[in-house]
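Subject: complex prediction, re-run

Hi both,

The earlier run crashed halfway through, so I resubmitted it with identical inputs.
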Amino acid sequence: MNQHVMPKLNRRAFVIGTAAAGAGLAIGLDIPFGGPTVVRAADGSPEVNVWVVIRPDNTTVIRIARSEMGQGTLTGLAQLVAEELECDWSKVVTEYPTPGQSVARKRAWGDFSTGGSRGIRSSQEYVRKGGATARVMLIQAAANEWKVPASECTATNSVITHTPSGKTTTYGKVVEAAAKLEPPADVKLKDPKDWKIAGKGLKRLDTVDKTTGAMIYGADVKLPGMLNAAIKDCPVFGGKLKSFDESKITGMKGVKKVVQVGDSAVAVVADTWWHAKTALDALPIVWDEGENAKVSSESIAKWLAEGLDNSQPAYIGNQNGDAKAAIASAVKKVEAVYNYPYQNHVTMEPMNATALYTPDKCEVWCGTQNGEAAFAATMEAAGLPAEKCEVHKLILGGGFGRRGMTDYVRQAVLIAKQMPGTPVKLLWSREEDMAQGKFHPVTQCKLTGAFDANNNLTALHVRLSGQSILFTVRPAALVNGMDTVAFQGMSPSGDAAIGYSVPNLLVEHSMRNPHVPPGFWRGVNVNQNAIYLECFMDELAHSVGQDPVEFRRKLMSKHPKHLAVLNAVAEKIGWGKPAPQGVYRGIAQVMGYGSYVAGAAEISVSEGSKIKVHRIVASTDPGYVVNPAQVERQIAGSFVYGLSALFYGGCTVKDGKMEQTNFDTYNSMRIAEMPKVECVMVPSGGFWGGVGEPTIGVAAPAVLNAYFAATGKRIRSVPLKDQNITFA
Amino acid sequence: MANLTINGKTINVDVEDDTPLLWAIRENVGLTGTKYGCGIALCGACTVHVDGVAMRSCGMTVSEAAGKQITTIEGLASNGALHKVQQAWVANDVPQCGYCQSGMIMAVAALLKEKPKPTDEDINEAITNICRCGTFQQVREAIHAAASA
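This time it finished cleanly. Structure:
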């Protein structure tokens, strides 16, 4: 298996300007003499275009710019290219272009960022065109050789046929000629209903190496002469490194060097990581913790609670009618306050990166969800221009948003810079990973609903208070100060639109940003927003004695796609029909990442607080399904991630630091706790939604609503462990 | 200094006696299929077989492992053929990110040796490895598939 080889382009002086690094730059790129436009892979095989390399034996190398972190994007994107290319799927291999190569070729592979469930939906069109363009060129090359019109030729399974004469040839035989042709200006893409490779639940391309131990993750990188580093950053976010007493660990076995990293961290570099970590644990370190050491979960909660008051300023994310007035004059009103804590991603593979620095070149090997951001971080930390930097992407041992950040890349480069010529692998301990997360933001939410005399919902006021991710991570994306992402699942339109029509609606956000660094986290704000809205919908329905599904349906007539997935799960779980003895149901729906999802759970509760989840049904409409087997896995996995956060998650702050240190204090679901997830896919076409994240939104509210059905107790606070509610 | 017998080969590793077996395997022997996930024997990513029993190698020292038969994920296949658990994993397309799967496969291989036809309850009790991607459904199906292979 050799599916993840980095393409090595032969290089020759060739000046290209680029905007990606913010300035024009010169870079070497080989343009061999065989043809003025042919670029060759390391083994000499020609590129038909940047997405497709074909070897003489018909092996088709498909380039994948997005990152594979388990979500199956690598396979899905390859299916889309292969579908249009009409190549032999059994001979497809994939490889990652490097960010450095992409920059050198005017960002030939486009965006590398793999987050927001965008891996497929944001690149499907241009990668399909890449496949289709290559097919047209290969057919044209065969037609030229046969001196027949290309219109008389067809291609399938890497074989080109001239229909009138029955002559055939293969992609491998005509690729040299095809690579020299001008690409067609425009190509027509297939109608998805004609797909043969895409749309099918084909096996992943990366499985075998993941079952034999052969897959190399960032943590497994080995380079000649490599040393290993363990690091501690100031546990109080925003604090600094004051001093460390190197003399206490001098002479400890394997220790090579102790280095300061930036102004807040210290690392021990040793022959092995175990030696580095052992010495680091023995190193006396003094921190300048600063003002943030006074912050606690309690002080954050108090500050957020103040934001729930209408007198405080807030950004308005969605509004129609006059909700405040309608609530003031309502016959009946219902109010509830919810909260959702910080969460850590806890990828199974802790953060790591390997760097090799010399004054002439800086190379990094790492798992990253954003190769170009890792490349930019490398340039900045190394202080070297783009043409002297490179990032080699590896398969990720989990991402969930965490590896879209580049803090660990920067650290690795800053360490390596202090040991020029020696490759250094930086690996975080699990404890460092828990302490230095980029946390799912903390929020609270006050919801108020108003009814008229006929029990019709006349107004809904959702007041969010809490942290913005964009404020810290991407301030340029704020809209007049407002974080539009904070309203996921409750937006007026777009890819995270609310599924209800209420005559008077107000959704607002009092932005309060504690010192804890936030980050995108699988499902991001859909997690808590769906709990808030979907549990409150349940509360509203029960307050007027209506069935929760019927209550929702009345508000969803103008949202047919939201309604369709809700109806699909309701039907599949048997809503309205009796559940087994002692089993209770809950349901939820939300839109996020361009997809419509709904989920329902059947649970039983023993001793008032021990939950057994018997059954989960989930429905999704992502527009198109590229690989149904992988979509099913993403849906099931979303429940594991979402319910782990609901039951066991929650990161708390004491003295400015995170209190949780490992799986003993931040647990994760096991196989015994997880039932089968029954998926109902209802792709309605005409749009491309994401798959990796949206379903997580319905996991928690479906179970919480079922818990209410079972016990009459409404849970408005996460995690459940804090209320002594556990898995049975 | 310890003599470790890993995948049938005896290797002298120059490490302190209290070095966790995991790090000796990864750094001194150079077999990186066994993963570090927590270091406190909770997640199971580092599971290997010690005298045929699934053990979390981060919680065992090299001196405790010396003289015993250690099998890592790299040594599970025999005579060039994948172990039936690995075959079931491939057939059922189990791994997502895959990082926990070496440990998961080792835990399952040990379970099947003890209980060739495990029930769902047996699986629930024996397989306590953490998988953050949430592959449990495929893991369960693949265990049953391997058991009937």
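Chain A has a mean pLDDT of 94.

- K.
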